[in-house]
Amino acid sequence: MTRRGFLASAAAVNLLARQSWIALDLLHGSRNVHWPGAENPVNMGSLLKPFLVLAYGATHTHFPVTHCNGSKDGCWFSHGHGDQDIINGLANSCNAYFLSLANEIDRAALDSVCLSYGLSAPDRNATNRKLIGLDLGWPQSPLVAVDAFARLIQNRRVPPVDVVLAGMERCAASGTARAIGLACYAKTGTAPCIHTPHAPGDGFVIAIYPRIQPRNITLLEEHGTTGAEAARGLLRKID
Ligand SMILES: [Zn+2]
Description:
The chain is α+β, with helices and mostly antiparallel strands. Helix content is 36%, strand content 17%.
């Protein structure tokens, strides 16, 4: 092998090691798992915010509008998102919006959503910050998370799932997952890195596609980056 060939293959191996992914074929129920330890719970940051929306919607008829001032409101976007409704709050993964939403979530309603979607319920003493994926987050097995999103798409016409999907559609079109570059439903997450060598963070992105008549779900984790950056690599995992 030439030196150039060796370097190219080494780079390819390095790239593979940086990413883990699961692809679920919704029509046949078959899955490709390229994720060592996919059954083990991991903090996926904001990825599970859609299920907080379902819990909030179980006991409220309307979603609030919240003003995000950025860092001082606990948001990742230091300049602030301004006024956020539920659709933009999801699309932008606005922490200020979701901290305020989490504050009004009925714990029994959240447990019921977890039961319906097969998710592990958060600790009884989980803070609002953990619920929205900050600090130690709301750890979940990647396999379980993919199945929960599959159930979400099955329920797409049932309120407030329709609202969640409208937010995930905007997330893919113009929000944190826009780098996917595909008409789909998507959500991103960024969590502290759990790997060695250690990086500041790990990025997660999930996409349900095509948006019209979805057939597949892919969840991708990329070591050493953000969810928004991980979104760039998702299209390469799609057949
Ligand atoms: Zn914000």
